[in-house]
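Lab channel / #folding
Pinned by the channel admin:
"Please post every new chain as: sequence first, then the structure tokens as a reply. Keep commentary short and put observations after the output so the thread stays searchable."

First post following the new format, from NK:
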Amino acid sequence: MTTTSTDGGAVAGLAALLADRTRASFCLALLDGRAWTAGELARAAGVAASTASDHLTRLVRGGLLVEERQGRHRYVRLAGPSVAQLIEDLAGHAPAPAAPPRTLRAASAGAALAYARTCYDHLAGRLGVRLYDALLAQRVLDRSGGLALTPAGLDWLTGIGVPVEPLRVARRPMVRDCLDWTERRPHLAGALGAALCHRFLDLGWTVRGTGRAIRLTPAGAPALAAALGLDPADLAPAPPRDAGAGRA
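Reply from TO:
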């Protein structure tokens, strides 16, 4: 019989941790890369604080979350990029919602997340996928022999002020792709994906919106388009969809 380092029970235990709507909601919220309090996560998931505390304890014990304490406050965050990748990959394989949002507010929030959001520490959504495609088209990245940064890509990074040496010594892969759960296509992850997300925020090309949402600023749209060799219209959000008869 062939043996492996991980048995079926361990995999089943991990799956059980995420096979609960509340715990899954917590993990999705934490994909914004920030630390949340139990109370904040409870409100986001619509559960009582005592219920949230029990679920968070299970997620911490299971290794999906890590805990930080500051005074009386308990903060939790995802345990690392590999956990974020697991959550995003699962979301990418989940079926699409059976019904559209019932209110204009919900539809707007969904559209904002679909356009651009953080996936832990890198860009996701339509903007993240467009960035990934443009970097391939501009030969900043090459995937002919496995995804890699090119020599031309090093010059491109220097041009927008991204230091290269920290990427070389990062403890995580420099570049990798990550299945986008709204676009169902890859966006850029890894140390480079995180560095670009942070650099765009530092430059003011993007700003944080509500929750995980990221917005492209009026000045950032032409600047990012120029850096990627695109027309600014290529980075525009998709036209809004009707929220349905139950809008309010």
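NK: Residues 34 and 68 are 12 Å apart (CA to CA).
TO: also worth noting, The first strand starts at residue 36 and ends at 37.
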